[in-house]
C-alpha cells in the first residue's frame, strides 16, 4: 500500500509499513497520519481520535503479492466508515477481514447485529457501505481479492459475514495469521504466501458453514481475477480469453478493470509479482521454469517484461549477493505497493 502516514520498513523480503506515534508528535498530527493510512478504504475523523486523552495506536502492515496483512493495537475508539462516495471514488472490490484478538467491534451491517469480541472473525466487502467502531482492540486485518477464496465462496454476498470465536477453525485462522505477522521479518515472499494461502483456505471452509443460502449475481471483476489467479501459467491468458470464459464482451470486461488500467495490466502485474516470488525463493529454480510458471513462452519474454517493470534483469536477482538483494528488494517493494494502490483505486492510472 501507499506508505503515506506510515514508515516503510525494508531490508527484508516481505516489506512492511509501520504506523506508530512519533516522539513529541501532537495527537492531532498523529491522528491525521492514521486517517491517511486507511483512506484507501475508509473515512476516519482525526479530530475525534485526537480528542481522546489516552488514544494510541500501533500497527505493522505486511505487503504480500496477494494480500496486505496488518496486525494492530488500539487504545480508545476508532470509527471508520465506507460510504457510496468513497466506493465510487476508489473502485476497490477487495474483501476486508477482521480477526479480533481482544476488544470490541460494533459493525453495521453484520448478519447477526451483535458486537464482535475476541475470537470472532468479520468479513466486509469493500464494494459495499459499512461503519466499523473498534474499542481498545488488538486485531489482525487482511485485504485481498475475492478470487483468493475457494470457488464456492467467490460468488456469495459475504458482506457482514461472521465466523464466531467458537467455530473450530476460528482459533486456527487467528493463530496462523498471528504467526505470519510475527515471523514475517524472517520469511521469504514465497514462505509468506504459503502461510497466507493456508489462512484464506481455512477462512473459505469456515465461511461455507456460515454462508447465506442466497447467491448474489456473478461479480464480473471478481470472477475475472479468479481466472487470472487460477491460470497464471497459461500463455494464452488474455482479455479475449477471459471474456470468452465469462461470456461477456471485451468492452464489458475492460470497463470492470478500467480503474486498474485495464485487464492486460492486471495480468502482467500478477505475472511479474509471481516471478519475483519465485526468483527470491530458496528453491533457486531455473529461469526457464520460472518463465513457464508465470505464463511466459520463453525466458527472453520474462526478462524483457521484468526489466521494464523492475529496472533489473531476473538473472541479476538469481545471482545477487545478500547485500545486493537489499537494493533489489527496495525496488520490488515499491513496485508491489504501487500495484496494491492501483488495485484499491487509491492512485490514478496514468
Order of helices and strands: EEHEHEEEHEEEEHEHHHHHHHHHH
Oligomeric state, counting identical vs distinct chains? single chain
* Helical run tally: 14
Mean pLDDT: 86
Please estimate the helix content: 40-55%
Share in β-strands: 15-25%
What Rg is obtained from the alpha carbons, in whole angstroms?
A: 20 Å
What's the story with the biggest beta sheet?
A: 11 strands, antiparallel
The shape, in one word, is globular
Structural class: alpha+beta
The tally of beta strands, per DSSP, is 11
Low-confidence stretches: 212-218
Distance between the termini: 18 Å
Please, could you describe this protein's structure?
With 350 residues, the protein is α+β, with helices and mostly antiparallel strands. Helices cover 44% and strands 21% of the residues. It contains 14 helices and eleven strands. The chain has helices at 27-37, 46-50, 84-90, 151-154, 170-183, 189-210, 220-230, 239-246, 250-257, 263-279, 287-293, 299-310, 314-319, 322-344, and strands spanning 7-9, 16-20, 43-44, 56-63, 67-75, 77-82, 94-108, 116-117, 121-125, 130-145, 161-163. Strands 1, 2, 3, 4, 5, 6, 7, 8, 9, 10 and 11 form an eleven-stranded antiparallel β-sheet that branches. A hairpin with a 7-residue loop joins β7 (94-108) and β8 (116-117). The longest helix is centred in the C-terminal third of the chain and has 23 residues, at 322-344. The chain starts with 6 loop residues before the first strand and ends in a 6-residue tail after the last helix. Mean pLDDT is 86; it is low at 212-218.
Amino acid at each position: 500500500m501507499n506508505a503515506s502516514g506510515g514508515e516503510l520498513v525494508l531490508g527484508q523480503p516481505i516489506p512492511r509499513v509501520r504506523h506508530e506515534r512519533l516522539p513529541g508528535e501532537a495527537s492531532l498530527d498523529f491522528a491525521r497520519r492514521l486517517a491517511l493510512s486507511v483512506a484507501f478504504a475508509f473515512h476516519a475523523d482525526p479530530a475525534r481520535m485526537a480528542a481522546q486523552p489516552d488514544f494510541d495506536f500501533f500497527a505493522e502492515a505486511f505487503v504480500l503479492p496477494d494480500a496486505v496483512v496488518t496486525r494492530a493495537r488500539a487504545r480508545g475508539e476508532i470509527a471508520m466508515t465506507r460510504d457510496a462516495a468513497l466506493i465510487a471514488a476508489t473502485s476497490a472490490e477487495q474483501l476486508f477481514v477482521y480477526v479480533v484478538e481482544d476488544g470490541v467491534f460494533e459493525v453495521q451491517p453484520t448478519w447477526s447485529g451483535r458486537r464482535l469480541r475476541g475470537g470472532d472473525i468479520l468479513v466486509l466487502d469493500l464494494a459495499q457501505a459499512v461503519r466499523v467502531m473498534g474499542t481498545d482492540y488488538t486485531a489482525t486485518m487482511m485485504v485481498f481479492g475475492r478470487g483468493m477464496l475457494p470457488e464456492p465462496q467467490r460468488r456469495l454476498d459475504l458482506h457482514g459475514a461472521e465466523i464466531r470465536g467458537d467455530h473450530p477453525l476460528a482459533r486456527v485462522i487467528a493463530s496462523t495469521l498471528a504467526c505470519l505477522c510475527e515471523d514475517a521479518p524472517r520469511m521469504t515472499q514465497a514462505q509468506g504466501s504459503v502461510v497466507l494461502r493456508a489462512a484464506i483456505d481455512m477462512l473459505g471452509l469456515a465461511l461455507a458453514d456460515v454462508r447465506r443460502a442466497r447467491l448474489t449475481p456473478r461479480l464480473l471483476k471478481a470472477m475475472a481475477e479468479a481466472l487470472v489467479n487460477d491460470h497464471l501459467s497459461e500463455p494464452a491468458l488474455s482479455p479475449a480469453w477471459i471474456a470468452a470464459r465469462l461470456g461477456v464482451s471485451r468492452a464489458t470486461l475492460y470497463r470492470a478493470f478500467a480503474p486498474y488500467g485495464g485487464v492486460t495490466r492486471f495480468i502482467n502485474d500478477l505475472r511479474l509479482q509471481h516471478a519475483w516470488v519465485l526468483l527470491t525463493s530458496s528453491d533457486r529454480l531455473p529461469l526457464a521454469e520460472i518463465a513457464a510458471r508465470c505464463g511466459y513462452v520463453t525466458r527472453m519474454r520474462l526478462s524483457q517484461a521484468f526489466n521494464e517493470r523492475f529496472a533489473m534483469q531476473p538473472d541479476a536477482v538469481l545471482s545477487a549477493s545478500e547485500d545486493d538483494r537489499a537494493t533489489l528488494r527496495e525496488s520490488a517493494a515499491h513496485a508491489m505497493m504501487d500495484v496494491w494502490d492501483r488495485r484499491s483505486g487509491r492512485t490514478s492510472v496514468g
